[in-house]
Amino acid sequence: MDNKLLNPLTLAYMGDAVLDQHVREYIVLKLKAKPNRLHQEAKRYVSAKSQAETLEFLMENNWFTESEQDIVRRGRNAKSYTKAKNTDIQTYRKSSGLEAVIGFLYLEKEHERLTSLLECIVKNVDER
């Protein structure tokens, strides 16, 4: 199956889970804290606002390949029938674009590129 043909919101659904798992592992090993503290810290990385800011940073620095940019664009432009929680629609769409490319890289088993992206996301948030 060609994963590029999947619905971009399906890719974003997958990407959300992959990013969440990566962030959870990172903060558990970093903080060794109780679950409530871990949850508060995780929100810094996985909130729509944080993801949108990270996407803007990556786009400004030409991080994505041309085909990855297409996935981001499709994810950003996808019509979601769910309401964005605690954010505006533009921020929500940007975060969906980032999640879509994460999901795509995961499904394509592009582990090296995916790991590089996830590490860049964490580093970007840590430096803010």
Secondary structure topology:
Blueprint: H1 8-31, H2 35-46, H3 48-60, H4 66-77, H5 89-107, H6 111-127
Helix pairs in contact: 1-2, 1-4, 1-5, 2-3, 3-5, 4-5
CATH superfamily: Ribonuclease III domain
Q: What sort of overall outline do the alpha carbons produce when their principal axes are compared?
A: globular
- Stated plainly, the CATH topology is called Ribonuclease iii, N-terminal Endonuclease Domain, Chain A
Q: How confident overall, as mean pLDDT?
A: 89
Instruction: Please count the helical segments.
Output: 6
- Count of distinct strands: 0
How widely separated are the two ends? Answer: 39 Å
Strand content bin: under 5%
Shape-level CATH architecture: Orthogonal Bundle
Based on helices, strands and strand pairing, what is the structural class?
mainly alpha
> Can you tell me the residue ranges where pLDDT is under 50 for at least 5 consecutive residues?
none
Largest sheet: none
CATH class assignment: Mainly Alpha
Helices and strands, in N-to-C order?
A: HHHHHH
Domain RNase III: 10-109
Function: Involved in correct processing of both the 5' and 3' ends of 23S rRNA precursor. Processes 30S rRNA precursor transcript even in absence of ribonuclease 3 (Rnc); Rnc processes 30S rRNA into smaller rRNA precursors.
Enzyme class: hydrolase
Cofactor: Mg(2+)
